[in-house]
């Protein structure tokens, strides 16, 4: 068994990638209202702030900051993933179960990176916002509806045409 080493930093800021078990599925955007509900309930029960997020059909990226005295991001992910799994099941879209009888919607683990400084945060936020273009869902960042990019534009932190067109290449996030 692989021993995962997680960095638990109270009040830390973290970049995460969580993916569906079936990377061909579109359950995240197909059920965006349920995903938002799962995050809202989780944030109410176990507060955290969302610094940036993008939801794609089969995976999501998020930068979140925990409260100063709290380092339990695994508990938050467990709760959010469980809620989102149960909500579509209640609608009749339960999906398949694995050999343990659990719904096999999510990959069992997630990718985590501790944000080290402001430059690291900026790189990961850029990666999140550019990800729909990178995956060729849209040709410009502003065309993807499930992204915190639009909140950044409303706050004046980014221009509407940030990221240009699909030919732009950012060197951030996961390696190709």
Present the secondary structure layout.
Elements: E1 13-19, H1 27-30, H2 32-45, E2 49-55, E3 59-65, H3 73-90, E4 111-114, H4 118-134, H5 149-155
Antiparallel strand pairs: 1-3, 1-4, 2-3
Mean pLDDT: 89
The top-level CATH class is Alpha Beta
| Count of DSSP strands | 4
Q: State the CATH superfamily name.
A: Transposase IS200-like
What's the overall geometry?
A: globular
Helix content: 25-40%
- The termini sit apart by 26 Å
* Succession of helices and strands: EHHEEHEHH
**Residue fraction in strands:** 5-15%
The neighbouring-strand order within the major sheet is: 2-3-1-4
CATH architecture: 2-Layer Sandwich
Taking the sheet with the most strands, its summary is:
4 strands, antiparallel
Give an overview of the whole structure.
This protein has one domain (13-155): Transposase IS200-like (Alpha-Beta Plaits, 2-Layer Sandwich). The protein is 34% helix and 14% strand. It contains five helices and four strands; from the N terminus they run E-H-H-E-E-H-E-H-H. It has helices at 27-30, 32-45, 73-90, 118-134, 149-155, and strands spanning 13-19, 49-55, 59-65, 111-114. The protein has a four-stranded antiparallel sheet with strand order 2-3-1-4. Helix 2 (32-45) packs across helix 3. The relative contact order is 0.18. The model has no long low-confidence stretch (mean pLDDT 89).
Write a concise keyword list for the protein shown above.
single chain, about 180 residues, alpha+beta, Alpha-Beta Plaits, 4-stranded antiparallel sheet, 4 strands, about 15% strand
């Amino acid at each position: 068994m692989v021993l995962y080493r997680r960095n638990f930093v109270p009040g830390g800021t973290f970049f995460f990638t969580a993916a569906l078990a079936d990377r061909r599925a579109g359950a995240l955007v197909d059920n965006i209202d349920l995903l938002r509900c799962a995050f809202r309930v989780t944030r109410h029960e176990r507060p955290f702030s969302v610094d940036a997020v993008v939801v794609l059909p089969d995976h999501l990226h998020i930068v979140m900051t925990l409260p100063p005295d709290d380092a339990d991001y695994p508990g938050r992910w467990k709760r959010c993933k469980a809620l989102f799994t149960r909500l579509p099941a209640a609608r009749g879209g339960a999906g398949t179960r694995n050999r343990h009888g659990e719904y096999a919607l999510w990959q069992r683990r997630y990718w985590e990176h501790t944000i080290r400084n402001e430059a690291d945060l900026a790189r990961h936020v850029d990666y999140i916002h550019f990800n729909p273009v990178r995956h060729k869902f849209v040709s410009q960042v502003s065309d993807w509806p499930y992204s915190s990019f639009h909140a950044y534009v409303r706050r004046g932190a980014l221009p509407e045409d940030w990221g240009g067109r699909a030919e732009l290449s950012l060197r951030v996030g996961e390696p190709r």
